[in-house]
Amino acid sequence: MGTLVQEIPRRLKRTARVDTYTYYVRTRAMEKLKTALWPPSRDYSTVRTSQSDDDEPQDVVEERLRGDLAILESNVWCLRMSLLITVSALLLVTTFAVFSRVCCVRSSLACGKGHIGSDPNGFVPPNIGEPPRWTLFDSTSPYYIPEDTFDDLDKTKMMAKKLKSLHNSSNVLLNGKFADWKKPDGTVAKLPAYYSTVSNRQTYIIRSFHQMHCLISITEEYGHRVHNVASQWAPQHVAHCLNAIREAIMCLADATPMTYVNGFAVGHVTDDQQFMCRDWSALRKWANDPVRGIRYKNLAPEGAKHDQYTEIIPFPELSELEKVGLA
C-alpha cells in the first residue's frame, strides 16, 4: 500500500511531463508552420512556456523536435508543390484555349470558312460588318428605287445622281497593307494594287461597293434605254455589271424562303420580310475613316453626258450619316 501511495506522485509527474511536452511540440509545430507559410517581418526568439522543458534530456527533446520539424517541412513542401502544379496547369489550359481559338480563327479565314461576305484575305478586319443581323429593306432606305423611277428620264437622272452621291467611292487606300490573292489555280500571292485615277495612290476596290456601283450603272443605263436615249455606259460595261450582280447572287445563295405576306399577289414577295444580313453601314464607316477613305467630286456640268470625277484631298469632314453611307 505504501509503495502504491509513493508511485502515484511519480505517475502524476510523468503524466504532467508528457502533457507539457505534447503542448510544447504542438506550439513549436504551429510556430514553424506559420513561419513557413507567412514569414515574419523580423526575427524573434522563442520564449519558453514551461519550466518542465529541462525535465527531460535536452538531446532527446531536440531529436524529437527535429523529427517533427522534418515532417512539418515535408508537408509544407508538398503543399507548395501542389499549389505550383495547380497554377501551372491552369496557365497551360488557358494558354492552350487562347492558342486554339486564334488558330481556329486563322484557319477558318485561310480556308474561306468565315461568314459569307467577310474578307478571308486579311485586308478588312473580320469583325467589320459582323455579326449578321435581321435587317428589313423597305422604302425608308435611302437606296430604295421607287417604282416610278423610269416613268420619265428626269426621274431616272435624279435617282442616279442620288445613288452616286450616297455611294461616292468604291475604293480604300492600301496604306502598305496588301491582301492575299487566291488565284484560279489555288495558289496564293499578294493582291496587286489598284491605282486611283487622280492622285495615283495605291488602293483596293471593296467588292460590295463595286456591286453597288454596278447596280447604279444598270439603273442609269436602263432608265435611258427605256426612253431611247444612250447613257454614258458602254454595252460591255453593262454586261460586266450584270455578271457582277449575278456572281454576288450565286455566291450568297440566300436560302431564305419568301411569299406574299399581305395577301396573295398583293405587293411583292419581298415585302415586310427581314433578311439575315451583314452590316453595310459598319463596312461603310470603316471605309470612310480618313486613314483609308477616298472621296470624289463630280466636276461635270449639269446635263453633261459623262461624269468627270476628281479626288477630294485632303479627306473631307463627313456628317454621321455620310460616314455610314446613308447620306
UniProtKB/TrEMBL annotation:
Keywords recorded for this protein, A-Z: Membrane, Transmembrane, Transmembrane helix
One GO BP annotation of this record: mycotoxin biosynthetic process
Pathway: Mycotoxin biosynthesis
Keyword Ligase: no
Chain ranges passing through the membrane: 77-99
The UniProt record lists the keyword Disulfide bond: no
Cross-referenced InterPro entries: UstYa-like (IPR021765)
Stated family: Belongs to the ustYa family.
Name of the protein: Uncharacterized protein
Species assigned in the record: Colletotrichum higginsianum
